[in-house]
Design brief:
This protein is of the alpha+beta class. Helix content is 53%, strand content 15%.
Length: 359
């Protein structure tokens, strides 16, 4: 009876596989950054930096671009800016204003959009939103006299909290920063970090022996903590175009090893540590997009990392409660759980690897 239930579970893995493959790029946080500056003279300046690969193909101007249609790029970028302008909504005291969208210089891999205009006379507050699917993105709002920007994290399709134009607001307290970045680190794993979730599940599936899981998670934690800190401080740097495919490939390697290795060996520890270094660079890339408060840099960095750890431990705990506790000691566990799940994870990782290299 139990094996029958697991057989049904294997069938349910098929739509799950399709779901994960449809997710595309797994880092939904950091898909966009919006910096809004409001001058004393009554003008606003909004700079939007977009990571186009996070958007659906019908929106992404680089989707399907090749040597044959490279001449269309300028027109595609213009259409993207217009699409974004039409999706955006800037409201002063609840009243929207007509937005413009001009090109803005941007780093490689980003699209820059500049929006400028006058602030309505007597306006007290402002809100921002966009109807495009952007994941969670960073919004910075600043009056000319503010000691530092006020940061918000907005989910795609949602409206930001009102920002006062009348007086400078004090920066977040240390405890507010800690709570906020703990949450951001956790949600970057659960539910948004699907690639990291699959890697952690790959660790879990090799063996249910608690010591081996603890050693692997510890090695992974130490490794990604090192590169997260070094990357944020600018000591090391690697392009996301290299890091993201390698992260996806790490999922494949761990899952494939589960198919041929029956128990934990020390080389697995070295493998997990090496891949943890890559995942740390991925965490750092997202954290850079989200931004760190200048006055609370260290608490924010440490809290984000602790939130990531909490997310990973939650994944491990959930896997134990859902599968390990009930079926871990069954003779058919490896054949009906470890192998099918690892095959699914390897297929997803391979799909992501090819997608991130060629698209």
């Amino acid at each position: 009876m139990a094996s029958l239930r697991l057989g049904r579970a294997a069938l349910l893995a098929v739509p799950l596989l399709v779901f994960f493959m449809g997710e595309g790029m797994a880092h939904e946080m950091g898909s966009m950054r919006v910096d809004a500056f409001f001058k004393k003279g009554g003008d606003y300046r909004i700079v939007v930096m977009v990571v186009p690969e996070h958007f659906p193909d019908y929106v992404n101007p680089y989707a399907g671009l090749n040597e044959a249609n490279l001449g269309e790029l300028d027109a595609r970028l213009a259409r993207f800016r217009e699409t974004f302008r039409a999706s955006a909504r800037l409201e002063f005291d609840g009243e929207p204003v007509v937005l413009t969208a001009e090109p803005q210089e941007a780093p490689v891999g980003r699209i820059g959009i500049l929006m400028t205009g006058p602030v309505p006379r007597g306006a007290r507050s402002v809100t921002w939103s966009t109807s495009l699917h952007t994941g969670t993105y960073y919004l910075s709002l600043e009056n000319e006299d503010d000691p530092e920007p006020q940061n918000q994290w907005v989910d795609g399709g949602q409206t930001s909290k009102p920002f006062s134009l009348r007086h400078a607001r004090p920066p977040l307290t240390r405890w507010q920063v800690i709570a906020l970045y703990l949450q951001l680190g956790f949600t970057h794993i659960v539910p948004r970090g699907t690639d990291h979730i699959l890697f952690v599940l790959g660790i879990f599936l090799l063996s249910l022996e608690k010591r081996s899981i603890l050693l692997q998670v510890t090695a992974f934690t130490i490794a990604h903590t090192i590169t997260l800190a070094l990357t944020i401080y600018g000591v090391v740097s690697l392009s996301p175009r290299i890091v993201e495919p390698l992260i996806a490939l790490s999922i494949v390697c761990v899952a494939v090893e589960n198919l041929f290795v029956r128990q934990f060996h020390l080389w697995r520890l070295a493998l997990v540590f090496g891949f943890g270094l890559l995942h740390g660079m991925g965490f750092a890339g997202v954290l850079r997009e989200l931004g760190l408060p200048r006055s609370q840099f260290i608490p924010a960095l440490v809290s984000f990392n602790l939130g990531v750890e909490a997310g990973q431990l939650t994944v491990i705990a959930a896997a134990f409660l859902l599968v390990g506790v009930w079926f871990g000691k069954k003779s058919w566990y490896r054949a009906r759980v470890t192998r099918p799940a690892s095959l699914c994870i390897a297929a997803i990782g391979l799909y992501w690897t090819l997608q991130r290299v060629f698209f």
